[in-house]
Design brief:
- The chain is α+β, with helices and mostly antiparallel strands.
- Strand 8 and strand 9 form a beta hairpin.
- The strands form five sheets. Strands 13, 14, 20, 21, 22, 23, 24, 27, 31 and 32 form a ten-stranded mixed beta sheet that branches.
- Helix content is about 25%, strand content about 40%.
- The protein is built from ten helices and 33 strands.
């Protein structure tokens, strides 16, 4: 019974709520962008002041707050209201009970202890809630047990109790408590619709009389629409192909699209998100509570003395801030509004009639392409639609594209598709049909990148097994220039990477081959030279009797290049074998300090035939000087080694001498040997000094030779 009373209070609140506005916003226009967002425009015809309502999904609220715009033909735009992000938490924040307390009458009464209530039925009591306790009662005739709640009230006559389940009615005598309960129940009812939020748009007629149109639009996240193409071309020899383009899109907006103007946009716009619907609180520093006798002065960071003119200018700038120069007048919607004021909205500018009647694409100033369907479209929520965006004949040329990284032995059967339609085509998959004996046949799929107007793309759809390509690479280097100064040999070296492509043509017909030769950072294409691209010697395949020359249409000066490869054209006659040589060159400089080279390294440099003869002779002389220095250094090492051995021998003799009896023959012989060792050590010392002097002289001669060498 108590639960019935609470539900009755909820129903009374809903009945007493103000009715919604009669004017309804109807979805009229949808624009889907490849930026992953959609533009939704609603429309309503109103007279006088109007209050319009629009429901949007909860997950779209951030985008709606970021982008919502109102167009009023002759009226003014007021405010846009909507519930908070968490209306249930907000509603209960200042109430004496929580949403969980509404789960049962007993929980609610326990939460409102001390409130005055009046019970109805056989026992009418008025008192303040003291407690609600749960007790288990056995049912008569062995019917089991049930749970009942005993309510204790403090009345004027003392403490009284009653069983909650036996009471016919129970109400709160304080109107304020009853109003809080009604508000909480209304918040719970609204929270049941938490997946959607209602926007309330207020518009004022102002001086406008009669009926006018109000439009409300916003941008929200939508699934990415996809472009797909079909190209139908005749068998080999055809110069054009019939292209059909389709936009595949989904309606996941949460509502049906009924007779809407549908437009898709291809481009790469900047689309951003921001959590505007989430409450944010500014973090503030906490300072201690001031008590008597406590002072908390701020720290002095110095002062700047201003002259009188600067102080006067500062006062003027603070009193009357001037508008920045060259600033445009603010838009009506961006102007600050005083409380209760209405801002005039910018008038809505409908698209020109020609754009609505044409199925062709139109280019926007923002480098995007719009495809507007000429008739209204209906798409149910959750449905998928295919909308035609292109239907025309485009120039198409059959080529064979060799990409070593994709297929090292065979080229790819491809089409060079040129867009002469005047507007760009968005990226998508292309299905290729070829007409064979009057009937279309599927031959493959291709990936098409964005195709701007006036440009062409190579679309590969199969592997051409009839053509075989062999590739051989040969690295080399040459010295373009050599110089010597200040003891440093500077070589201008050109590294060269030569690749020879040998192509065996197909027996079923000629091929216009395009070879993608990889680009390397820092390297330049040296061959084919200008005017020679696409030329190769040919021979009869398999027989050796025939000969021919394959000549391509391209030139070295006009060689196409992608971000990763050069595109080299080559004509391949049927049944012939042709070759194409491509070479990349990289100039670089080598600096060699001649003083750091050994005699063998100098001899290697002197033997390099690409160096000038004078430089080779000079390097040979330096090699001889370096050999002389090496010989002197070996002489020093020999003397030092013998000197170390003599010193070690003398130490051994000295140890033996201490163990021998003085005056004995062995003692005398040991003394004689020590004398001979001392004599030899003196001679070695003189030899070492002379060897070091000779080595230093040889080094100086080498240094002088290196320093004096300049070629």
């Amino acid at each position: 019974m108590i639960r019935a009373a609470l539900l009755a209070s909820t129903a009374l609140l809903l009945v007493s709520a103000p009715a919604l506005a009669d004017q309804a916003l109807v979805l009229k226009r949808v624009l889907l962008s490849t930026g992953g967002v959609g533009y939704f425009e609603y429309e309503a015809r109103v007279t006088g002041d109007a209050t319009l309502s629009l429901e949007v999904r909860r997950d779209q609220m951030d985008d709606v707050l970021k982008s919502v715009v109102v167009y009023d033909e002759r009226g003014g735009v007021g405010t846009i209201g909507l519930p908070g992000a968490e209306p249930l938490d907000t509603a209960f924040r200042e109430l004496p009970f929580s949403p969980g307390d509404l789960a049962s009458p007993a929980a609610l009464l326990n939460a409102l202890k001390g409130a005055e209530v009046t019970t109805g039925g056989a026992r009418e009591l008025t008192g303040r809630l003291l407690s609600v306790t749960e007790e288990t009662v056995q049912l008569p005739n062995g019917g089991g047990a049930t749970t009942r709640h005993r309510v204790s009230l403090m009345t004027a006559g003392g403490l009284r109790q009653l069983v909650l389940e036996d009471s016919d009615a129970l109400r709160f005598t304080d109107p304020r408590v009853q109003a809080q309960l009604d508000a909480a129940l209304a918040a719970v009812a609204d929270d049941g619709r938490r997946e959607r939020r209602r926007l309330t748009v207020r518009s004022s007629a102002g001086d406008a009389a009669g009926e006018r149109v109000v439009r409300v639009a916003y941008v929200a996240a939508t699934p990415l629409w996809k472009a797909t193409y079909r190209l139908s071309a005749p068998a080999r020899g055809g110069a054009t192909g019939a292209l059909q383009g389709w936009a595949v899109l989904e309606n996941l907006s949460g509502e049906d699209w009924r007779d809407v103007e549908l437009t898709v946009v291809s481009g790469n716009p900047v689309t951003l998100r921001q959590a505007l619907y989430t409450p944010y609180f500014v973090e503030r520093p906490e300072v201690p509570v001031e008590v008597l006798g406590r002072v908390l002065p701020t720290a002095d960071e110095g002062a700047v003395t201003l002259d009188h003119q600067r102080a006067a200018r500062l006062q003027e700038s603070q009193a009357e801030p001037a508008a920045p120069r060259a600033m445009a007048a603010p838009a009506p919607m961006a102007a600050p509004m005083a409380a209760g004021a209405l801002a005039k909205a910018a008038p809505y500018a409908p698209p020109p009639p020609a754009a609505l009647q044409s199925a062709e694409a139109s280019a926007a100033e923002s480098a995007q392409v719009l495809f507007r369907y000429p008739q209204p479209v209906t798409v149910p929520n959750g449905g998928t639609l295919m909308m035609p965006i292109a239907a025309r004949a485009l120039p198409a040329e059959r080529v064979a594209l060799y990409q070593p990284g994709t297929q090292p032995r065979h080229p790819l059967a491809s089409l060079r598709l040129r867009n002469d339609s005047g507007s760009a085509l968005p990226p998508g998959l292309l299905t290729f049909y070829e007409t064979v004996e009057g009937a279309p046949a599927y031959v493959g799929d291709a990936r098409m990148a964005t195709l701007p107007a006036g440009e062409s793309r190579l679309l590969s759809f199969a592997v051409d097994q009839a053509v075989t390509v062999d590739r051989a690479e040969q690295p080399s280097r040459r010295i373009a220039r050599a110089s010597v100064a200040d003891g440093v040999l500077t070589l201008s070296v050109v590294d060269r990477q030569t690749t020879t492509y040998t192509v065996a043509g197909a027996a079923d017909g000629d091929r216009a081959l395009v070879i993608e030769h990889p680009r390397r950072p820092g390297w330049e294409l040296a061959e084919p030279a200008a005017g020679n691209a696409g030329t190769g010697a040919g021979s009869g395949a398999g027989t050796g009797a025939g000969s021919g020359a394959g000549t391509g249409a391209g030139t070295g000066a006009g060689t196409d290049a992608t971000a990763s490869a050069y595109r080299l054209p080559l004509a391949v006659p049927a049944g012939k074998t042709v070759t194409l040589t491509a070479a990349l060159e990289r100039p670089r400089a080598e600096r060699i300090a001649l003083s750091d080279l050994t005699a063998d390294q100098l001899a290697v440099q002197a033997a390099a035939t690409e160096l000038p003869q004078a430089l080779r002779d000079a390097l040979a002389r330096l090699a001889a000087l370096r050999s002389a220095v090496a010989g002197k250094e070996r002489r020093i090492a020999d003397v030092e080694r013998e000197q170390a051995e003599r010193i070690k021998e003398q130490e051994r003799l000295r140890e033996n001498l201490t163990a021998l009896p003085p005056g004995s023959d062995l003692h005398k012989r040991t003394l004689a040997k020590m004398g001979e060792a001392e004599t030899r050590l003196d001679a070695l010392a003189r030899d070492l000094t002379a060897a070091r002097a000779e080595a230093e002289a040889a080094r100086q001669t080498l240094r002088d030779g290196i320093r004096g060498l300049a070629l």
